[in-house]
Structures are given as C-alpha cells and as structure tokens.
Amino acid sequence: MKKLISAFLSVFMFLLLLVPQAQAANVSVTYNGTPVIFPDQAPFINSDNRTMVPVRAPMEAIGATVTWNNATRQATIKKDDTTAVFTIGSKQYTVNGKTQHMDTTAQITSNRTVFPIRFVAEAIGLTVGWDPQTYIVSIKTSETPETPPEETNTTSTQKPMNALTPEAKARLMAYPYPAGVNIYSPMVKYTEESIKAGYSGTHLQEVTQSWC
Predict the structure, then answer these.
(1) Where in the chain are the domains?
(2) Where are the beta strands (DSSP E) in the chain?
(3) Average of pLDDT values for 66-89?
(4) 121-130: buried (b, 16+ CB within 10 Å) or exposed (e) per residue?
(5) Residues sharing a CB contact under 8 Å with residue 167, sequence separation 6 or more, in sequence order
(6) pLDDT at 21
(7) pLDDT tens sequence across 30-53
(8) Calpha distance 33→29 (Å, rounded)
C-alpha cells in the first residue's frame, strides 16, 4: 500500500512540473502587432499569475539592450534615457536608480532568465495589454501619433478683394462696417450685385448692419 501511495505521489509531482510548460505553449507576445519569436524558452504564467518571458527577445525587438551580470545575478535593460535593473529572486528593481516594487520575482528557467513582462516593459515606457481569451501579451509604444486638425475649406464662400471691380472695392472700404462683419463673405458678393443694380450706399450699409 505504501509503495502504491509513493508511486502515486511521484506521478502527481511529475505532472505538476509539466503544468508551467503546458501553459507556456499557449502564451504569445507581440510588439506593435508583430509576433516576438522565442527560440529556446517559451513564455509561461507563473504561480503569481504573471506572464514570464525570456527578456532578451522582446527587449531587443524594441531596440533596447540587455546585459547580464552573473556575479550579481542582475539583468540591465537600457532604452534611450531609461535604465532598468532586475535581480533574480527579488521583488525590487530600479528604474534610473529609483527603487520600484513588483508582486513577483524574476527567475532562471532552463538556463534562461525570465522576467514578468509587464513590469519590464512598463519600466522603459511601454504599454502592455493582455487578452485572456487568446493568451496574447501585446506590447506597444506609448507614443500615439497626433491627428492633424481638419482644415476648413473656405474657398467656396470667400471672395478675395482683388476679384472686385475698383468701384466695388472703393465703396466697400469706405463704409464704417460694425465689428464682426466679414467683408469677404457673403457681403462681397451682395455688394457687387447691389452696385450693378444701382443701390445706394445707405441701402448697403443698412443691409450689412442687419447681418451682425
């Protein structure tokens, strides 16, 4: 009976060791929509429910550099003006010398250093998303392109002064129009037509004042 129980426990422990690898096969990482390739160690979800990845592949995909110090068991990640340092087995890490905290630790799996990808990516200014349906970690640059303001096309309603007859231009500029009246639309068109029709200056002034 004891041998049976011992054999059962051995099989059970063996199956537990296989669980992280099974989870790893389902987790993938993208950077700005492009899949990140992990040649020798797949991402997986650890016991703290954090996605762990070999840090070098995604960091180099975004243009960061990764160096490993075997003596201190630390990985240093540099991107532009940001330097983040993570230590194996520690929940503390530094960003430009300032200590930060996370709820899990980096570790070594299959001779590869694996890190919680959210903390690493956010440390160097990236944003991280997680799709629980597809098990996809999406890393994106934080900058979003600005949408240029829409230009208002006023060419159809405005008429330049040089399009007026000399008489119309002189009469327009001579009137004491109230503030806020745009002499380029639609008063220009109305004034030209009024001059041709023989309306008086008083009539034009009364009409434009009524537009305010």
Answers:
(1) 19-141, 161-210
(2) 28-31, 34-35, 44-45, 51-54, 65-69, 74-79, 82-87, 92-95, 98-101, 107-109, 112-116, 126-131, 136-141
(3) 95
(4) bbbbbbebee
(5) 195
(6) 43
(7) 999 999 998 888 999 999 999 999
(8) 9
Spatial contact of 66 and 75, defined as CB atoms under 8 Å apart: yes
How many CB atoms within 10 Å of residue 56? 20
Partners of 171 in the β-ladder: none
Topology (CATH level 3) of domain 19-141: Copper Amine Oxidase; Chain A, domain 1 (3.30.457)
- Cα distance from N-terminal residue to C-terminal residue, the chain: 102
- Nearest 5°: phi and psi at 199? -70, 150
Who contacts 88 (Cβ-Cβ below 8 Å, separation ≥6)? 73, 74, 105, 106, 107, 108, 113
Check if the beta carbon of residue 208 is closer than 8 Å to that of residue 181.
Answer: yes
Most confident of 20-24, 36-40, 65-69: 65-69
